[in-house]
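I am writing to request your help with a piece of structural work I have in hand. The matter concerns a single protein, recorded as an amino acid sequence and a row of backbone structure tokens. Could you please explain, in whatever detail you think fit, how the structure tokens follow from the sequence? Thank you for your consideration; the sequence and its tokens are set out here:
>
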Amino acid sequence: MSGANGISIEGAGAACAVGGSAGGGTGSDGTDGRSWQGPTAPERLAILRRARSIAIVGASANPARASYFVATYLLSSSPYDVYFVNPRAEAILGHPAYDSLADLPVVPDIVDVFRKDADLPGVAREAVAVGAKALWLQLGSWNEEAAAIAEEAGLDVVMDRCVKIEHARFHGGLHLAGFNTGEISSRKQRLA
């Protein structure tokens, strides 16, 4: 199914997902094996409102990657100072890329993570070590060990949510397909 302008609606969140997936599978007992409870929508809004800077760990200069899509949005449509962490890149979107969170010129308020599951506890420890205020794991990322590490140190934690989608949702820029259409209207969009 496509929305106005021919944008696919079915996988809109997949653009923000780590590895292109929008979430984990279910266990043999029919549950998703998740016991951690994330912050409510008002709590996520409060995290975003308190933040002044976001560090994207696992940022990519490849336009096909979810982190690039999110970084483009944050740089153009949000008030945050955005920093990129990728030891294999020199610059991303015209901004310097840093080897680690410890190398950043500031302490980031939010550490937004685009890394594979096995790396998440280490990133959580690094976020704690630099004094970040929140650990945000993108769509498709869920690691209760990483959440426990961050929460034990007093960080707010969000998992399996896209910071771009959440910011746009709370600030009026979320269209049905997850994109800002630039059009203000009270009419429901017609599907083509």
User: Anything to note?
Assistant: Confidence is low (pLDDT under 50) at residues 1-12, 20-31. The CA atoms of residues 110 and 134 lie 5 Å apart. Residues 39-170 form a domain with the Rossmann fold fold (CATH 3.40.50.720).
